[in-house]
Structures are given as structure tokens and as C-alpha cells.
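User: Quick sanity check before I run a bigger batch. Here is a single chain. Can you write out its predicted 3D structure?
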Amino acid sequence: MRRCRSLALSSTAIAGIWLCWLISIRAETTGLFHPDAQHISNRLYRELHVRKEPNGKEHGFDALDPLLWSRTSYLLDGKSWAQALGLADEFLRTHAERQISDRTKRAMLQRDVWAIFDWADQSDLPHQTERRELIARLAPIVKRLALSPDELAQLPDTYVRALQNHEFPAAYDPANPSQAFLPPDLFDTRGPWVCLGAPDHDLAAPLHDLSFTARSIFFVFARLPGGRAATLTYFKQLAEMKLSLFVRMQEPGWPQPMDVWNPKVPQFPVGTEFALARKLVLPDRDGHLRLTPVTESVQIRHCGRWD
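Assistant: Done. Predicted structure follows.
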């Protein structure tokens, strides 16, 4: 019997720039997007992304995505809504984007404000008046922070940087199965990792794409122990068999039939690994979406046997 162990690399772990920001945002005297901790860019980010418990403990400054869900009312009523509007107005009024010269910091702030815009822009949920007020202020901030196509292409390749800094082991360690690792050849088009697609030009990770609209692109990779040739052979076999990966069956102990792995599908071997890489997309100054070199996160699953 086999298992898949999830080994997830967060944005703070995969790239030096994220780790640098995590350290700086924790310090009250140090700025995140501007050296002045009280600069409007820093205060706006904290209001939009940092959540505080009654005891003062803060969350969200090191999160890849804002701690907001479809039914969250934070930023949509009461004090948090009024403060968010006030800070956004201050940012626009003072043209604060002109005071952020570092292109990477501009891009990351644009990314984070765009994420809040997307979350607020839901026409089928409560607080429609508040949502419209909020997105009306966030939209011009996203536009003002935009970089040129050349500047976006020059953003740091965070995956390569993490490899150069030797931040993680290069391979799975069976003696330390919970330890994250970062394959140096994940994006090598001739290497052992194969980038997977879906039939009929469908998406390989449709749920992830739906959750993040156009803000990120997801790449799904697989690597069988036998290398690239073995991986290609296995998935070619699956494609030619034209079998559904899941079938509806009645499982013992469950009241209703459920979708389970099709037993007719050939099992991949022990040691197979799957990776989900998330890369950043941003609009340029003309409003065109551009894929950037920034890898936001990587999730890797190493599949082995039950002990």
C-alpha cells in the first residue's frame, strides 16, 4: 500500500526576497515597501493583509495569500473598512507609487493589492456597496504600480535564487521524510521532470486556476524513478488507454457512492514525485497580463510505501 507525502514550500521559504520581507515586516522600525515603517505603502499593506488577534498576535504578514475567504466580512464593515478606504485614498492622493523605486517591491505590492481587489469583486455576496467602494480605490493603485514589460521580465527568478543560495536539499531524503526539498532540474525541458497538460487543451490544475483567476499560472510536473523516458512512457500509456482516472464506487463504511481511483489505471511506481509550481502573473502599464520569472510557491509530493 502506498502513500503520498506532501512537501510544500511557502513563498517565504522558496525565495530569498520573501524571507527578507518576512523579517522586515516584523520590525516596527523597518519598512517593507519603503524604508519608513510609517510610509503609506507599508501601512496600507498591513491593513489589507495583516490580521490581529484580541491579544495582539498578528497573522498574515508571512502568508502567500490574504487571510480572506468568500464570507469574510473583514475590510467590508466597521473600522477595518473605513481604515482601508482612508489608507487607499491617502496612497492615491499622495501618489505614493512614485516613492517606491525598487521594481520588485512595486511588483509585490501590486500583486498583494490585486489579490484584495479580486477577493472584494464578488457580485453575489453581501456588502455590495462596501465592495464597490473598496475596489474603486484599489483598481487605480494596481494600475499605478504597474511596470513596463521589460521591467517585469527583469524581476528576480526566485526559483534559481533559492537554488543558488542552497536553501533546500536537492532531493527527497527518506531518513527525513518531512523535510522540504527543491529539485534543481524541475524546469529543465530535457530533464527528468515532465510538465503535464490535459486532453483537449484543458487545464492541468483547473481548481487552482479558478481560485486565482489570472493572477497566477500553475504548472504540474511528474517524475518517475526511471527518468524522463519512463515518465513519458507511463503517461502516454494512460492517454492511449482512455480510462477515467476516477470511478464512482460504493466504499465500505460510506453511505453514498464516491469517486475513487480507478483500479484499472496502471499504478505509478514507488518513488514517483509530483510537483505543482505557481508562477506570478502581473498586468503591465498597458494592462496586458505578463508571466514573470517569479515562482510564488512549489508543492512536491513524494510517493512511497506505507511502513
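The radius of gyration is 22 Å.

User: Great, the batch can go ahead then.
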